[in-house]
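Please study the protein below:
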Amino acid sequence: MIQEQQIILRTPAKVNLSLDITGRRADGYHTLSSVFQAIDCYDTLTIRRIENDAPMTLCCQAEGVPCDSRNLVYRAAQRLLQAEEPRGIAMTLEKNIPSQAGMGGGSSDCAAALLGIRALLKLSVSDQALSELAASLGADVPFFLCGGTALAEGIGEILTPIPDVPERILVVAKGREGVSTPEGYRKLDRLEEPLPMYTKAVLDALHTTQPQRLFAACGNAFDAVTNLREIRKIRLVMSSCGVKPVLSGSGAAVFGGCETMTQAAHLEQLLQGMDFVRICKTIPYGVQQYGTDGIWHSL
């Protein structure tokens, strides 16, 4: 018998303050330039150490979330422990970040599994090796190892950290509908007119003392081809409040930057009919561990 130990992690969502399509590679993958920003909307992943010979388990309360190798958390454990059927740990995932939203929930959970298992089992895996493993699991996964703000290039795997930016207030909303990323790219490929580019303007405005300058610069290439009914409704409500609506990732979540908490609360109230709506703030960190002191700490 061994004494049970556990680690509790919170895994932040992200929004894309900008998303430019910069090209298409010979293998069909699109290249991009995007500013990733972590926000304070979290899933929670608890990892417990159990009997060494006990098969690994993954549980999740959210309907439709697989708890086998279809889940990035499960695959992260397989790859990190180098076993098709890992043993000795039990994981519980509590979902709050909506799926098919472009908010990186699955990638963030995956990063948390990598960091948490390494810490709990005291594995001798370097940060560089962990980052390479993260990139092999998903283009967005390495970002959540550090979080904060970063410029993503290539297919999203080339990350340049950006110094901490002033805290910003956002309202994020999503309906029940999801968005197919492959279909979004196919629609972009069919466009004849050149797409606007947003990343340079966002980078120039990140550290401004004027929030509206940053919010006005934000934009996403997928906005040109994503027009679901619920997204149209969210855009209309945000625009009516003087807030610029912007897709995150390939959608279907839409965010809008607000200058004050009062403005954000009013907008949140107007969007209450949506499946998901939340006031969020930007944060300068990624996955965090709950400490014995009752405080969250970056790993």
Observations:
- The chain has two domains: 5-163+289-298, 169-281.
